[in-house]
Amino acid sequence: MKRALLLVSALWVMLAVPLSAAASLGGDRNSVEADRVFLKATLEQTAKSNYSVERIQVPNGVVVREYVSPAGNVFAVAWQGPTRPDLREILGAYFPVFLKAVPPKMNFRLLRGPVRIQANGLVVEMAGHTRWLIGRAYLIPMLPAGVSAREIQ
Q1: DSSP H helical segments within the chain, as ranges?
Q2: Which domain holds residue 132?
Q3: Interval 79-127: pLDDT, tens
Q4: Which of 44, 82, 101, 105 is the S-S candidate for 55 at Cβ 3.0 to 4.6 Å?
Q5: CB 90 within 8 Å of CB 74
Q6: Does some domain include residue 53?
Q7: Is the Cα torsion angle 126, 58, 151, 99 positive or negative in sign?
Q8: Residue 117 forms part of a structural domain
Q9: What are phi and psi for residue 135, nearest 5 degrees?
């Protein structure tokens, strides 16, 4: 009984305090600055040869990295920290694809991993334990030429 109450309480906290984060997968980079301001986060940009990485550090310790193509599209996101960012926002229009691919007996909010979901060109990988969660999501068809999924960390 105590365990069930603890799980319900933890779920309410996760739902009550969602962690919005950055531009959605498949979207463009225009919302990054607005999200940084909203989250009171810091933003670092790193240019690579055929993409850029926009790293958002939220005060609670969550770090979200967005991988942006030269055309300005977010082709991948990765995260790490004591909690998971809001997957609805992170995955954007691909969230329903993710939900449909999650096995029926799994609750995506409680997924700790390791979990790998692949559907319709979307790949979502998550792992972690209490107080440290990592994950990444990327769109295979949107990977820029010469970019490997191994680079998304």
Answers
A1: 2-16, 32-39, 87-91, 95-101
A2: 19-151
A3: 999 988 888 888 989 999 999 998 877 766 666 668 899 999 999 999 9
A4: 44
A5: no
A6: yes
A7: positive
A8: yes
A9: -175, 170
